[in-house]
């Protein structure tokens, strides 16, 4: 199966599940972001890897990295939400131009090593 199609299908599924989850407030707190991301990941059986707040092109953004699936079928997602409010954007890390996207797979690999060593 084509990985590009898989990425698009995953992004589409998440986009549909997000319609009612974006906060209506003008400023989005970290707690609100975590709640929205949790709802999105629950819809696809994903796991939150990490979250942070960054400046991207002069705009504050909440960013979360997540994984869906496991083993060779694992895909990494990047979820972003402007701190000033707006829609939650979800994209696969492989298709994202956000600099944080490159960290997702490395972080997950590191966590796998820690779990194996524990």
Taking all Cα atoms into account, the compactness measure Rg is: 14 Å
Measured as a percent range, the helix fraction is: 25-40%
How would you spell out the order of helices and strands? Answer: HHEEEEH
Tell me the major beta sheet: 4 strands, antiparallel
Report the structural category: alpha+beta
Overall shape: it is: globular
**Number of DSSP-assigned strands:** 4
- Counting H and I runs of at least 4 residues, what is the number of helices? 3
Q: What does the average pLDDT come to?
A: 81
Uncertain segments:
none
Biggest sheet, strands in spatial order?
Answer: 1-2-3-4
The rounded distance between the terminal residues' Cα atoms is 35 Å
The percentage of residues in β strands lies in 25-35%
Task: Provide a descriptive summary of the structure in words.
This protein is of the alpha+beta class and 118 residues long. Helices cover 40% and strands 28% of the residues. It has helices at residues 3-17, 30-44, 101-117; strands at 46-56, 59-68, 75-82, 89-92. It has a four-stranded antiparallel sheet, sandwiched between helices. It starts with a helix and ends with a helix. The model has no long low-confidence stretch (mean pLDDT 81).
């Amino acid at each position: 199966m084509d990985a590009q199609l898989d990425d698009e299908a995953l992004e589409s599924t998440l986009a549909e599940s997000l319609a009612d989850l974006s906060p209506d407030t003008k400023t989005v707190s970290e707690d609100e972001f975590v709640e929205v991301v949790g709802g999105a990941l629950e819809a696809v059986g994903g796991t939150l890897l990490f979250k942070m707040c960054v400046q991207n092109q002069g705009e504050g953004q909440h960013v979360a990295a997540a994984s869906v699936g496991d083993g060779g079928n694992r895909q990494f997602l990047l979820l972003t939400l402007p701190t000033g409010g707006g829609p939650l954007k979800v994209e696969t890390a492989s298709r994202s131009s956000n600099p944080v996207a490159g960290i997702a797979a490395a972080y997950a690999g590191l966590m796998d090593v820690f779990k194996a060593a524990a």
